[in-house]
Amino acid sequence: MPSAGLASTGLASAGLPTGGRPSAWLPTRLPTELPTGALATAPAEARGLARDGVRLLVAGPDGPRHRHAAALADALRAGDLLVLNTSDTLAAALTGVTRHGERVEVHLSTLDPAAEPATDRTRPDPSGYPAALASTRSRWIVEIRTGGGPGGVLGGEPSEVDRAAESIRLAGDGVLRGVRPTGSRRLWSAELVTPVPLLGWLTEHGDPIRYRYVSARWPLSAYRTTYADTPGSAEMPSAGRAITPRVLRRLHARGVRVAGLLLHTGVSSLEAGDGPHPEWYEVPPSTAAAVAATRADGGRVIAVGTTVVRALESAAVSPTGDGRPVARAGWTDLVITPERGVRTVDGLLTGWHEPAASHLLMLEAVAGRQLLVDSYAAALAGGYRWHEFGDLHLILPR
Predict the structure, then answer these.
(1) Of the candidates 353, 347, 332, 398, which has an alpha carbon nearest to the alpha carbon of residue 110?
(2) Whole-structure pTM over 0.85, yes or no?
(3) Which class for 291: exposed (0-12), middle (13-18), buried (19 or more C-beta within 10 A)?
């Protein structure tokens, strides 16, 4: 993950393609470092809270309102549509040793979009994920970090060592081989070979991807949403972690509809300037229809997480140009910026992001700059917690 410090010069220059640019709205308003205790180092359940007991800041034109995630339905209206990402988290962190004896931690990010069968549109599922997870050989985009494993730094340390042609022996008799560059400073393409089908092997020998700010080796169950049904994400789509069955029941009683889509997330640990990398998404016909019906009836479309925004915007290819997503699946490298804007969503439920994160450009596209400034200032003043186990931010600009 990016550093916990808030860059004193404002949002770090993202250096992104297709419109990414520096922002300068933080420096005079926020401190240069997060206050002590601002990072959520453990799941809510380990802190004596219910999973949906984390705090929720509702940001809108009338100013910030402080609630809890369990009361999400109270912030929404009958006729609104909440869109979830139903991708499930893989045990995507693997310990290994290079042929030179160096201990490393390998983080699976996504399947390699350039490798078959990921681009074979004749397959029943052209993403390639079901086939790869049922196979003993597949090609992945990976991050190779130094250290990690038992006794090492939790999650390992970022590394830009040249890994081309490397071979890595993994715990559980797996092998990572055929490593080749991708154009990123820290991501590589590599073939993963396992003695048994991959999904079961990951469950037995892998761990959830963790970073050094967490206080313990929390189990995979802590990194899964309660409604996930399709394995494939390197890291949990964490904006939905607090969406429990109780929250879903309350949404239903309120008259808020719920729909799902799929986006398999890659690693989130890349440096500013790397930008988001291609991820597989699928917007099913039922969700595209629900978005259209909600808009026609005057309701609001609320995305749960930046992954949902990315998927819906990638599917918004209506020839009429009205911003309605259509049923669509494929690899997306879309970067959403304030200049580009958003066409498919009216609000966003998300976590709290650091200044180097490209996600902040998307948040500004949804919220507008001033609302985002005000809500981040209110979160810092109110002691909200950052990262995947932290508190939530509901942006309702209109």
Answers:
(1) 332
(2) yes
(3) buried
- Provide Rg for the chain, Cα atoms: 20
- Per-residue pLDDT tens over the stretch 67-100: 999 999 999 999 999 999 999 999 999 999 999 9
Tens digit of each residue's pLDDT (9 = 90 or more) over 345-382? 999 999 998 766 678 889 999 999 999 999 999 999 99
